[in-house]
Protein 1
Amino acid sequence: MKNWWNKRTAEDKQKVALLALVALLLLGAKLLTGFGVDSLVLYFYLAAYVIASQDVFKEAYENIKKGSFFDEHTLMIIATLGAISIKQYPEAVFVMLFYQIGDFFEDMAVSDSRQSIKSLLDIRPDTAKLKNGPAVAPQEVKVGDIIEVAPGEKIPLDGVVVSGKAYLNTAALTGESKPLAVTSGDQVLSGMICQNAPLDIKVEKSFHESTVVKILQMVEDAGDKKAPTEKFITKFAQIYTPLVVAAAVLLAVLPPLLFQFDFQTWLYRALVFLVISCPCALVLSIPLSFFSGIGAASKAGVLVKGGDYLEALNQVKTFVFDKTGTLTKGEFEVVKVMPQGGMTAAELVKLAAICEQKSPHPIAKSICQYYPGNIETAEIEELVGKGVSAVYQGQKLYCGSQRLIEEVMGADVLLPKPQTETLVHLATKERYLGSLEVADVLKPTTKQTMHALKEAGANLIMLTGDNRQVGLAVADELGMDEVKAELLPQDKVKEVQKLKAKLGQKEKLAFVGDGLNDTPVLAQSDVGIAMGALGSDAAVEAADIVLMSDDPLSIVKAFKISQKTKQIVWENISFALGVKVICLILGALGLADMWQAVFADVGVTCLAVLNSLRILRK
Ligand code: ADP
Ligand code: MG
């Protein structure tokens, strides 16, 4: 309890004090009643009302300025002023007081769940220690500086290890609990925690471009994007509120006019009816549900960039996957060198390494690693999705896919056919020089993921830039429904557009990629899912959902969370509306008084809020 109180902001504490003051005034008024000081009692009540209702008036004023006259706040004001007009002072104050208490607890729940998301992502470093220098703010460290990270500290900026050997805790970034071993030459990301030994790190990105800052930014933004269900509620309130007000007016006016019933009684009933009608539970619990869903996902290492994507994920019927780096590890290894036309194996590897030295593609990395010597410089051009070309000793070399070589040498050139592994071909315009076989393996959880998605009724499609035989072999092993191979990045966009056109209104398409060459498709699909830890920055930016651990199984986790969120949202909607309708009828019939009305509203709101938070607990 003490802990809880200490966590509250000054604003929260001020609110508690004000609410206590209102309670004291009410108590004073109650005690003074019957002692012949009626006007003093009245002042007490009015003071209590003014204090308790000021926020509601402020909110209502803000909304009216924005042009929306009918919301829960205007409802409350009409109801309580009406109560005052019929001298039901304590009722008026209590309506406001209870509303404030309910509101206070909801704020609390929202800020606590925000807090728990933030603490999951408690990765923002305070300082960075320069090598043989002082500790400074991470913003002041420049690219190229060497920083020291002691055991137990967070890595403040993205970079590469230059000396030391340590285990890193990456849980905050990836949800993965297994420590990651790093040593000289390994990439490290800000937000990882160095566990057991000091590391020297050469900084490669400035602080505001570092992973940690980007993630925090995304989490902050995530709360702002509204899911369709949330928008529905806003619209709903705009129609609902005037309807309820009209019904209340009729309830107050018609029975006395038509049947000469007591006006006072029916006015009171109409006011009770208004109080009951406040849709607070809906208005407050639904955004909170989505927020909790986003929080639960981030616990599982999945960053969802907004409630709308969480909801859309639920409706995904077609999952489209990129192959390399998404379904497979994307860590190639040269397994065979097949020179032709008088080349030696050593020459072939040397030329391939010269071509590949600047390419970010995993194939390129494997070839450069395979070459034992120093790579000579050359003039290089990346032919995205196909390979690279290089001008070396006056010769133009082409290195890449079958498609690339066919484009260069003509479609009738005879190339060796790959079986299950990818071939990288090397050629000049006139002469075929040979190929390298590079092998990649499936990620350990890929099969299980495909199985689970299939089980959930999803259609699985693979789009790959790789050769047809290789693509088919992998798709076969995974039981994919469809596979398209030898695609360029722009072909992938066209395929996704075609697939989208085939889907119905409610069905959505998700594209899952590692971001190398597939940023445009990520942006095109209904739900773009990117591999975050190793994916490119552009892909992480274009994606709607980022898998921090690059583990395809996280898709299944996120899918389940989105289902749970949807279920809880609809539970809340039906529960809140159900109770509301019952209470409205009771109120109209005079079977519920103002007290019960207030309790019903606060009670439903609290239950709905607690229900929302269940998502986070799971
Ligand atoms: P995927 O769609 O499976 O992720 P990519 O679009 O990244 O594949 O690449 C498609 C194909 O283009 C690869 O299978 C490879 O044959 C070729 N390729 C692309 N970049 C390179 C490169 N730098 N070196 C050699 N081959 C490459
Ligand atoms: Mg790829």
Note: The longest helix spans residues 553-588.
Protein 2
Amino acid sequence: MSDIVKIVRTVHDLRKITAEWRDRGHTIGLVPTMGALHAGHISLVKQAKKKTDRAVVSIFVNPTQFAPNEDLSRYPRDEAGDLKKLLDADTDLVWAPNVAEMYPEGFSTSVRAGSTAKDLEGAFRPHHFDGVTTVCAKLFNQVTPNVAFFGEKDFQQFTVLRQMVRDLDIPVKLIGVPTKRDADGLALSSRNAYLSEAERKIAPALYAVISALAAEVAAGADIPSAVTAAKRKLASAGFAKVDYLEVRDAETLDPAATASGRPLRVLAACWLGKTRLIDNVAV
Ligand code: AMP
């Protein structure tokens, strides 16, 4: 094994390599990321290695999915650390374009995310999913993966992208990978780096509360009152503000007033100090 991972920074160079792989009949797996990699990202890379012949990881902090008031400028970046982790995970290629390569002078076309993007994250981050669908459409065209791997951690993002691929007939299969958590239940996230020591101690309450809510709903609890009680628990654990805590249809993300027999998902976003955490679990 080489001691450096192959890193490519232009679409031109990327296409040469992927064309050669396809000529040889290799299948390509893509793991899109914004870097600051942790074990959650690496679990996606492992799936790509397992299910396809060539694992490509993209690292691109996508400006178009951040609103002007969001954390783009302070988003954690650690390319050297990322490359080391990706080498250890036996990644075949790292696709790390800069902003000018991804959005050259004159760039102005975008993919508008569909109905599954309209609320939850979409209500609080209005243009976020259009940024995600646009950059992922570009990544799919650049890398031409057979399969792309996304974390269930960002469950709505995965749903929105599945809808995009279906609606636009993009020839890629999407696979969702279960959320990796710390031992205390906190979902791994690059944004956990923002938490103070005290906040980090409170943070696992989010997973505990949504897991308990999911169990209550599965046992037949009245959804609106169980949700109200769960919001109260989050507030008393120390979460300053709950953007949303909802029980939704796991496929359409439509509101679920009752446990209808269809698969349901509990999804939440809330604030600990200046850090916004999201998480979700299956009912
Ligand atoms: P990000 O770099 O945060 O954009 O995430 C890149 C990919 O990694 C997305 O598909 C995320 O859903 C996924 N991901 C992030 N955190 C986790 C986690 N804790 N477990 C599994 N996948 C994750």
Note: The pocket of adenosine monophosphate is lined by residues 33-34, 40-41, 43-44, 150-151, 153-154, 177, 179-180, 187-190 (CB under 6 Å).
Protein 3
Amino acid sequence: MPIADRMTRRVADFAVIKNMFEEGRQLKQKFGADNVYDFSLGNPDVPPPDAFRKALRELTQSDTLSFGYAPVAGHLPVREALAQRLTGEHGVPVRPDLIVMTVGAAGALNDIFRALVNPGDEILTPAPYFLGYDNYAFLVDADLITVATDQHFHLDLAAIAKAITWKTRVVLINSPNNPTGAVYSAEEINGLGQVLETASTRFKKRIYLVSDEPYRRITFGAAVPPVLAAYSHTIVVNSFSKELSLAGERLGYFAVHPGAEDAEAIVAAASVVNSMHVVNAPSLFQQAVARVIGAAVDVSIYRRRCDLICEIMTAAGYEFNRPEGAFYLFPKSPIPDDARFTEILRGERILVSPGRAFGAPGYFRISYAVPDRTIAGSREGFQRAIDQVRSSIKRPAAAR
Ligand code: PLP
């Protein structure tokens, strides 16, 4: 037995994803990268803002730049700048000492879950959901419990209230959402705060709301409401992976509501986890980002791409909810078997992810963080794929 038993299935799951990438690579090798329409990854290609590049250049040219270990919670100037930004965004006086810099939003979620969650506890999340959540729950031996959203992928508060049990420790939301592009309204978020307050009283234990917001700055007109203002036991998670297009540089953070009963204890525990795993978040990038807090990528590029892919999918006859933010479209698969339909699309050299990977069989995800020409080039393939399944549905079995 070369590896731990509990890892065997996880490694097999990752092999499926690795195979998908490998098949994509082979397709590109065979047909040329320009003739393969790869919508499978949420890896931003929009360039970081000029202000960020300038800040990084200045820093790297400075003689006083240090490369030593940083404080576990992160450099103070970046936390101070973030506290100011979050205070403005949420209307709650966020404190720098309740912010911890982490290795991406993924690092923040892992730190928080290790700090808050006991083995066997439940983490509740609306589905469809980001597939990393399964892994983060696995790492703390928690059960990820999913609650269906409504037909527009918005919160079903009654269903959430019903799904909360005495084992629920955390309710985890993500808006703007990966994979659906939904942005939850102020009414939904305030309603969720009330549900959690009532449930915490009923079960005589504190249920935390973790709001995972890496796409907060990428919206197409919808306002992202202040989550900290809706519930005082909220922890906000964010990163610079998407808003500054720095996904590979692995910088994120979390901020605990100053009114949370155990805010200091949670920050202390999550900092210890951070230090156990990574010591500190990338130091150079903390210093660079501190100089440009508030800057963001050019969101009009994502909006333009969103318009283009929506137009293509509408013309072909796909059903979908128009995204309000992030950079994903989550159409209904024209046949119930979403894995089969992604194979049909692969036959057209179009790579997408099956909805079942996000807890939503019967759908598929298109990431439009790709050049406009990739989107434009996929038009005929999307049309042929839906035509193919429609004609096979219409044709009687004997005639096939
Ligand atoms: N949460 C969501 C909803 C995401 O989509 C992602 C990445 O795609 C993450 C967390 C992880 O982000 P990071 O790259 O900042 O770790």
Note: The longest strand covers residues 168-174.
Protein 4
Amino acid sequence: MSSGIVSRLLSSTAAAFDSRIIGQAATALTGKAAVLKNDAQESHFYPTLIDTFGRRHNYLRISLTEKCNLRCFYCMPENGVELSPKAHILADDEVIRLASLFVRRGVTKIRLTGGEPTVRKNLVELVGRLNELRALGLRSIGITSNGIALHRKLSALVDNGLTHLNLSLDTLDPQKFQLITRRTGHDAVLKSLMTSLDSPGIEAVKLNVVVMRGINEDEVLDFVGLTKELNIAVRFIEFMPFSGNKWSHNKMVPSADLLRRISERWPETEAVYPGEPNGTARMHRIPGYSGSFGFISSMSDHFCGTCNRLRITADGMIKVCLFDPKEVSLRDIMRSGGSDGDLETAIGLSVKDKKAKHAGMENIDVVHNRPMILIGESDVLGLTHMDESGKPRMVDVGGKAITSRLAVATGSIIIPAHALDLVTPHTPDLSTSSFVRRHSRCAQLAGIMAAKATSSLIPLCHPLPLTCISVNLLPVPDELKIVSEARVSCDGKTGVEMEPYCCISVAGKEMIISDIKVVHKSGGKSGDWTRPH
Ligand code: SAM
Ligand code: SF4
């Protein structure tokens, strides 16, 4: 057990252990049971939210934003994701209108998520407005947060009706935190944890820990140890695949393995029975400990049979399953003047279309879906770039065969209007066009030089024997931009994707480069790939 972290936790909020909180710990199960009993008693359940397998969807997760103040590598790329235009995100009134419709049709629990919900403007007021839906049958308002900013808003949120908190924290080690989230702020998350335990209005605090082989699996016993003093439910989540997050089977640690390790350390471990109806986690506890722990085994042991969740994305799409890419825009229905009846019809059709399990796909590790936050192509410090203790290392490609490889990346360079004039080919001024040619050549040369320098610019990137680099620039005058395309080939043991990235990432100070992505690659073990349009 990392005694350092526990004593820091203990000393940072001594109040968490006063008799009131310990009393709260002792009665936690009773309190939870009371909430669940209410759920079971609900009488106003409408067919709209019942699917063809008889599952009653009384739990709604609403994403309030695509933005986040962390960059967890399993969730989003280092530079963030391409955000939807602000106007596409649901306004407060639209969130409330949908929430109210769902509550009137039988939803009793709402959880706010994201992105990071605490970065949403007016979050406190929004929670206050949701709280008014209690009169219609809403029983709990929860939030899933990374805890960076939460501690500052928690007391106002609780005053406005927040009752449940899921806090995400994958490591007890501040340095590893930085490696996983690419940001600092470990202390702030701990502060949120302790502040929430000290908030009588919060009925349950759950700690979400995504377990990844070679990254934080060695901390599982430490997390379980926290439940001795803290009345928290630690939930170990199996690392899930989303387009671009470099998921692979061997990075996922099956929950059964974790339970075996925990039971070896604490043979007295017992299952909490019955668990929460519709609960995603199979919970366990160690007799005499204040809290509990469990597993969300979406990959190895799905819980689809009892799934009661529906999701609304920040841009207003209803998603009936996290793994089902199919979405219907409730926002568009609202904005085109649709009535509540129209919304209900669309919701009902989506719910009836829900598959028995994991969107009907047997093999979800190939799923191409939005991540929980939107995902882009991620070529950042992936898991293969760390050793067992989390230290950075180059991937060993020694045993791989040399193959001919090609990667193509594109990007957009937004440039000032006067510069665009110079690169527009129909200019009548010959001296200008030679100026243009010269500058295009400069840009092409700069790109080629950048591609050649990739292994020195990108940490842990292998130097590759490049065989050809070409750069094409296509002005798009109407949009004040130049579309650049870089093609780089090599005969090598590993992929050549980073080189075209670097190639199109060089620009002057007045320019904005955006939308950089690999659009095609060929060669290597994983074969050919072309980005779908
Ligand atoms: N930003 C908030 C947070 O981190 O708590 C809320 C949104 S986050 C997407 C919700 C939860 O999804 C977090 O607990 C996070 O750890 C989990 N998550 C994100 N990507 C995941 C993945 N690839 N596999 C498993 N869990 C993941
Ligand atoms: Fe942000 Fe949460 Fe995703 Fe981490 S898991 S990047 S905190 S949205």
Note: The CA atoms of residues 103 and 381 lie 42 Å apart.
